[in-house]
UniProtKB/TrEMBL annotation:
Protein name: DUF4406 domain-containing protein
Amino acid sequence: MKKLFISQPMKGKTDDEILAERSNAIQAAKDSVNDEIEVIDSFFQNAPADAKPLWYLGESLKLLATADAAYFAPGWNKARGCKIKNLCAKEYGIHTIEA
């Protein structure tokens, strides 16, 4: 079983839009990996009210470190946090799947 990290642009999106995109990402990753996957919960719905973008990035990188594979949802290459996570995944040998 592979642990999957999902990176997706979230700025300006509702929780419902984010969760729908995550569902699509999970299916695309399953099709790509050809193995059972366990999705790492990286959608911070209960983040501190005053959390800044770097807080989210730091927490995301901690979770990315536990992944076997990382799926980058459409638009990832235009979102600064996603681009940083993509670079980290590649530099540290985590299998990347780019939509």
